[in-house]
Every structure is written in structure tokens, then in C-alpha cells.
Amino acid sequence: MSKLPSDLSLATLSIHQDDHLARVVDIAPPLTVSTNFEYPPADKLILARDRKISEDSGDDLIYSRFTTNVVQRAEAVLSGIFGAGAYPVTYHNGLAAFTAALFFFNPKKLAIGDGYHGCHSVAEIVSRLNGLRVIPLDSDEIDSTTLVHVETPINPTGYAIDLRKYAEIAHARGAKLLVDATFAPPPLQDPFAFGADMVMHSATKYFGGHSDLLAGVLVTKDADVQRALRGDRSILGTGMGNLEAWLLLRSMRTLSVRVRAQSASAEKIVRWLADNVERLPALTKVHHSSLQTEAFVAEQLAGGHSPTFSFEVTSAEVARALPDRLKLFHHATSLGGVESLIEWRAVTDPHVQLTLLRVSVGLEDPDDLIADLEQGLLAA
Q: How far apart (Å, rounded) are the C-alpha atoms in residues 140 and 71?
């Protein structure tokens, strides 16, 4: 168990929270590839019949499908990032994390609104298998058999949703609230502070931060829930591989500085775009939480706004052509990396308008990115 002081900042914890799990003297944790581990001495062996998978603490190294040292270290860092009393469980991608949450809660109804189309597709599969009913987020049918799923900020617009409102609705009716906070990780927002029962992230994005790994995470405030999730994970085979967990651990060391810088740059770019809509004929509308005026937004996103936002242009033809006119933005899906991306979102999301482009702001100088967008939009 970590012996670090309890009042350390996120930036410090992301570097030192896993120090107590070091098995070698290397400063940078080594990448190990072993799938199995030698059993402890005979007097410490526990028979399988005496060990419940659902009570697995995740502390014992037996087989890599259960856990590995690098997974343990990544989850330790995540526990520091999410704060006191947080119990994280990692998965091999974000949709695996969402699926794990559905399996754990096993709701009869899923109340879900706008957001990542992949979660809606998972819900369709679960509905086909067990009759799960998908209902609107503001449905009057929410009750104790319901899991309420809120994504905030929303993919792809970057708009914030009032978490306290939906937490009160869910809990008043005996439901649970699952929050997808992928677009605004710590230090930008803390969904637990506004009533979330469980938080999920596609850790591929900002926790990974370098466009080179797939990962997902569920976070709970209940150690028993963490044990149950780990038990399910070991049977379903949805845990992370050694390489991905090692890459994730490496990336989280710089989470705080990366995300703060990306957030500040995104706000500057969004403000410039919003102020220049009339001057840029191809641009029609900008979407981002920093443009919202509701009181809850500033409180909920106390650490800053998402580095991802969207804007609309005059036609599908312009949306198709614009990415190729930009010099500093890669035309690619996903988000959260150190390089800025732009995506004609309709290529991957069947539910968005054809005129929408999604932008993920990286770590380039924001003035350079603004200049690139200006020349591209004027040329369009």
C-alpha cells in the first residue's frame, strides 16, 4: 500500500502513486511480457475451490488474464488521479469498459441520451441478448431497474450535461448513474462530486494521450464493486495486455500538464472561431462547453473545458474537403493525442449531420493552429 502523504497534487500522484509496487530498482518501470508467474511457497498456496473469483483483490500475480505488475501499477496511478476512495479497473478499450458496466449492473432499462455511437451499439447487442430496453435520458420510466448513462461533455459537440440534475433524478427513483467522462478527464472535472455512482473513460484518449494504445477504465468508490468487476474481467478476458498497460502507465505521468495545456489551447481556438463566424464564410456554428452560459457548466468543469470541440460548415462538400486543406491537423478519428486532429465526423458516426467536423486539440502552439484553420476555412 502506498505510504505517500494524502495531500499531494494530481501531477505528483500520477508520477509516484505506484512507487510501492516497484519490483526492480529501475526508475522507469520495465516492460515485462510474461503471461504466467511462479506460485508462492507451499504454505501460502490457496486452492481454487477456496478462492472466489468475485472476491479477487487483484493483488496476486498468477496469470496475466487476471493481472500483471504493470496493470497493478497503472491502476494504482489511476486511483491517485481520481482521488481518495477511488477504485479503478482497467480494460482493453473503452467499449469493453462500458460493456463491463452493463454486465455488472444488469439493468432492465438503460436511459441514455446523446453521446458516443459505440455505446448505443453495445446497448443494441445487449438488448438482443437479454431484452434490455433502451429509453430516453429524460424518460418518466426511470426506476430501480434502470441504469442512467450520461456522457459529459458530449461526443462530438463537447457540450456539458448537468450531472447533478441526472444524479438527483436517478437516485430519487432508485436508479444508478454511470458517467462517461472521456472528453474531460481529471483535472478538468470530477463526476463523483456531482453524484455519479460509477465513472468510465475511454483511456485510449487523454489518459493514453499519444495515439498509440487502446484502454478503458471504470472507477467506483466501493472496494467490493472493484473486486466484482475484476472477477468478471478475469473470466470475460477483457483485461489489458502488458504492452498497452505499460504505455498507459508511461502516458499518465504527464496527464496533468498535457490536459491543462490542451484545454487552454482549445478554449483559445474556440473563442477565435466563435468571434470570426461572420468573417469566415464557410463557418456557420461552433460547439463547445466554453460557449455555454448555464451556471452548472463552470462549477462542473472547474478545471477547464474539454480539448475536443466541433464546428459546422456550409455544406457536406466543404466538410469533406476542409481537412485536406489543413497543414497541422491530421484527418483521423479518435482524440486526446499530442497531435491535433480534425475529422469529418460522418465518416465514422452515422448519426451526425454531414456538415460537422470534430477537432481534437493537441500540444502545438494554439496560434499556429488558429492560423492553419483560418487559411483552410478561407480557402474553403
A: 41
